[in-house]
Amino acid sequence: MEPLPGDGWLAGTSKGVKNDRCLNLKVPAGVYEAVRVDSEQDTVDGVRQVQQWYAPGIGLVKSGEVGKPGLVLKSFTPGKE
Asked: Could you tell me if residue 3 is left (phi over 0), alpha (psi between -120 and 50 degrees) or otherwise beta?
């Protein structure tokens, strides 16, 4: 079952996780309709707030800790069927 916008869950040391629909997220690899997942992760240094964007059929296209530079998908080539 796929999570719907606004759903939340707990996973390991992450808490207060939710997702929202994000239309037309632009990264160097292109423009994707993606789901944003916000999480708070407990670490030895405190709590980190992380945002990740996932595009259907692609996977993770953008990820990063809030307020810091993150990672973005630079290119994507679909696999052969």
From this structure: beta
> Model confidence over 16-60: pLDDT tens digits?
566 666 678 999 999 999 888 888 888 888 888 888 888 888 999
CA 42 distance to own-chain centroid: 17
Q: What are residue 32's DSSP bridge partners? A: 25
- Sorted by where each begins, the domain ranges of the chain are 8-71
Q: What are the distances in angstroms from CA 6 to CA 18, 20, 52, 54, 80?
A: 6, 6, 15, 15, 34
> Rounded to whole angstroms, how far apart are CA atoms 19 and 44?
25
At a CB cut-off of 8 Å and minimum separation 6, what does 15 contact?
39, 40, 42
pTM over 0.90: no
